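User: Can you recover a sequence for this backbone? Please restate the input before giving your answer.

Assistant: Of course. Working from this structure:
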């Protein structure tokens, strides 16, 4: 770019600068979203988790002990309790939403999913500092034999920093709900 062109650009009016900003925003808006889908039947059962432990549980009836997993045509087949799964997303990805796919046919119990990040830093004290729920959603209502989608679009700490944090999903199934999958949608 020559000196005259640089000077002309520098002398642009506020309206021209606004036009450039608008064009940049429009170009950024065309980034395609990607979705990672994880079958909940592949999650690892845990004796207890942050959101389902003795004395503190998201389940209406209190702590629900975990049962071994059982798969039935793609669902977790109503195995109750806590389940965990590591989540690997690309460095710098921006998480847009968290979705739970489930057949919730019981109005008294729900399945919950949490997208979690945990700070990794030498000397971190207390060691539990830097634990954040980025997004969470849960099934609700009762519809017999129908897969439904439950979504949270309000993601906190949405930019992935794999060098500084670990990421995982926690599922708590409080009853006879049949969760199928958790999805994380993001842009790069």
């Amino acid at each position: 770019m020559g000196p005259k062109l640089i000077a002309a650009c520098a002398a642009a009016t506020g309206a021209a600068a606004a036009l450039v900003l608008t064009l940049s925003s429009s170009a950024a808006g065309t980034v395609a979203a990607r979705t990672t889908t994880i079958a909940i039947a592949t999650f690892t059962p845990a004796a207890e988790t942050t959101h389902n432990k003795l004395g503190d549980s998201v389940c209406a009836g209190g702590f629900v002990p975990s049962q071994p997993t059982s798969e039935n045509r793609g669902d977790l087949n109503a195995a109750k309790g806590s389940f965990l799964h590591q989540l690997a997303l690309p460095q710098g990805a921006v998480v847009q939403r968290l979705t739970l796919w489930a057949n919730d046919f019981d109005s008294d119990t729900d399945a919950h999913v949490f997208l979690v990040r945990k700070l990794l830093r030498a000397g971190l004290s207390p060691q539990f500092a830097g634990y954040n729920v980025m997004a969470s959603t849960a099934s609700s209502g009762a519809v017999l034999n129908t897969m439904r989608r439950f979504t949270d679009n309000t993601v906190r700490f949405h930019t992935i920093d794999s060098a500084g944090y670990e990421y995982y999903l926690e599922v708590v199934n409080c009853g006879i709900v049949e969760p199928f999958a958790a999805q994380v949608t993001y842009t790069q």
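That completes the design. The longest helix spans residues 14-28.
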